[in-house]
Amino acid sequence: MASIVTLTLSPALDCATGIAHLCPDAKLRCSPPSYAPGGGGINVARAIHKLGGHALALCPIGGPSGEHLLELLSAEGVAWQALPISAWTRQCINLVARDSAQQYRLVMPGACLSSAEQMQLLQRLRELRSCDYLLISGSMPAGLDADFLPRLLHCARQLGARCILDSGAETLRQGLDCGGLYLIKPNRHELSTLAGVTISEPAQLAEIARSLLAPGRCEAMLVSLGAEGALLVTATLSEFIPAPAVPKRSSVGAGDSLLGATTLQLAAGASWSTAARYGVAAGSAAIMAEGTGLCSRADTEQLFAVLQQQLLARGNG
Predict the structure, then answer these.
(1) Is 147 among the residues known to form the active site?
(2) For residues 199 and 67, what is the distance between their CA atoms, to the nearest angstrom?
(3) Helix (H, G, I), strand (E, B) or coil at 39
(4) 243: pLDDT strictly greater than 90
(5) Within a 10 A sphere around the Cβ of 247, how many other Cβ atoms?
(6) Mean pLDDT of 31-55
(7) What is the mean predicted confidence (pLDDT) over 80-84?
(8) Which CATH number, 3.40.1190.20, 3.40.190.10, 1.10.150.120, 3.40.50.720, labels domain 4-20+31-316?
(9) Helix, strand, coil in percent for the chain, rounding step 5
(10) According to the model, what pLDDT value does residue 292 have?
C-alpha cells in the first residue's frame, strides 16, 4: 500500500454538545460535551484509519487544546507528527438544538503560523521517510506567507508525492496556478467561484470542471455535491455518482470521509471511478453517524456494495 500523509494547517479541537432550544440572551444549558480531533486533514486521516487504512497526520499544534487533540488522536490509533507552535490550537463547537434537530457549527479561525514556523513545517515535510500521497486539506490560517503554498507544492514534488488539495476556492486557484496537482475536491460553490460563473444547471458542472483541468494543472477533480453525491472529472472521464439515501444525523466530516476513502482506494491501485464511488459511500456513511463520528467501515462497505449494484444495473439496462 502506498503511503499517505495528510497536512492540516488549521487543526481544531472539536466540541459537540446539545441544547433544548436556541434563543437569545438566556443561559443555554448544554448537554455533557464530547471532544474529537478535527480539521480537514486530521479528519481525513481518521476516516482512513476507520476504513482499515493508515495515514500519517502532520499538523502544527499549540497550547493545552493542541495537547488534548493529540491525546484523542493517539486514543483512536491515528499516527501523527506535530510541529509545536506558539499559538493555541483553535476550538470549534458543533451544537444541536434538540427541539428542531438543527445543527449549528461554530468554526473559529485557525492559529496563525509565524514565518519561522512555516519554514519548520516545510522542513518537517522534507524529512518524511515516505510520502506517496500528500493530502493538504482544510482552511488556511490567516497570515501565511504569499509564497507558502507554492513552496509547499514544490516540496511535495521533490518528495515524488501525488498532491491532493481540498481547501477554499482561492487556495484551490493558487494550487492550480502552481500546477502539478493530482486531485482537487471543490464543492459546488467553490467550483463556481473558481470558474467565475454561476452554475445554474447540473449539465454545466462537468464542462466547467474540465475547463479547469488544463494539462499540467491537475489530473482530476472530485466535486462534492452534498446529499446529491459527487462528480468525478478527468481528461477522459465524467461520471456523476449519486449518493445513496441514508438517515441524516450529522454533516460533520462527510466531505473529509469522501476524500479519505477515495484516497485510500487510489493508494491501493483502484481506478478513479471505483475510488470515487467508495468515497461517496464513505461520505454517506458519515452522514449516518452522530456528532463527529465520521464514517464507519461497515456502513461504508454496505453502501459501496449498493452503489456497485446500481452501476451493474445501469450497465445491463
Answers:
(1) no
(2) 42
(3) coil
(4) yes
(5) 6
(6) 96
(7) 98
(8) 3.40.1190.20
(9) 40, 25, 35
(10) 62
Which residue carries 464513505 as its cell? 282
**CA separation for the pair 102, 87 (Å, rounded):** 32
Domain regions of the chain by residue span = 4-20+31-316
- Say if residue 312 is exposed, middle or buried (CB neighbours under 10 Å; 0-12, 13-18, 19+): exposed
Residue 217 and residue 209 in contact, taking contact as beta carbons nearer than 8 Å: no
40 with 134: CB under 8 angstroms? no
Place of cell 460535551: 33
Residue tagged active-site, from 14, 166, 256, 299: 256
182: which 3 cell numbers?
493530482
3-state SS string for 230-279: EEEEECCCEEEEECCCCCCCCCCCHHHHHHHHHHHHHHCCCCHHHHHHHH
Arithmetic mean of pLDDT over the chain: 93
CA 45 – CA 270 distance, rounded (Å): 19
CB-based contact 277:311 (threshold 8 Å)? yes
Distance CA 133, CA 55 (A): 10
* C-alpha cell belonging to residue 173: 486557484
Give the count of beta carbons closer than 10 Å to the beta carbon of residue 273.
14
Grid cell 478535527 is found at 38
Residue 4 has pLDDT above 90, yes or no: yes
Q: Which residues pair with 55 in a beta bridge?
A: none
